[in-house]
Every structure is written in structure tokens, then in C-alpha cells.
Design a protein that fits this description.
3-stranded antiparallel β-sheet; extended; two-stranded antiparallel sheet; 29% helix
């Protein structure tokens, strides 16, 4: 999103406010640890599901994808 373009949201009180994109946000150490923990937990959950023969549905780049335990993928929604 270009820095000159803005989106708008409407607050519950009816006020419309602009939302500006942020190119880069400095990640705090706590946020970094939480993100890394979430990534590990997700990877572990997927590995467990595959080991039990359960398929997994994810969203990758805005597209819903079903991944089978044999790692074949089916696009569910584009």
C-alpha cells in the first residue's frame, strides 16, 4: 500500500478515521518471542496432525489450502 493512500474505518460512534499503512514496525523482544513460540506451536500441531493421518487447512498468501498428510495440496478458495 502506498504511503499516500489511506484506508478509512468507521468507529462505533460513527466517526470516520483514516488508517495509514506502516512500512516497518520495530518488533519488541516480547513480541518476537511470542511470534516465534506461535510458529513453533503451529509447526508442532501440523506435524502431530500429519502423523495421525489428519489433513490440515491453512491460509497461505490469502488463499485457503488443504494439505494432506502425504503433503499434497488442494486449493479450496482463491
Amino acid at each position: 500500500m502506498s504511503p499516500t493512500k489511506t484506508a478509512q474505518i468507521t468507529l462505533p460512534n460513527g466517526e470516520v478515521v483514516p488508517v495509514y499503512p506502516v512500512e516497518s514496525v520495530q518488533e519488541t523482544e516480547e513480541t518476537k518471542r511470542l511470534r516465534e513460540s506461535a510458529e513453533r506451536a503451529g509447526a508442532n500441531a501440523i506435524a502431530k496432525a500429519f502423523s495421525k493421518g489428519i489433513l490440515v487447512t491453512i491460509i497461505r498468501d490469502g488463499v485457503m489450502i488443504q494439505i494432506n498428510p502425504d503433503r499434497t495440496e488442494t486449493v479450496l478458495e482463491a
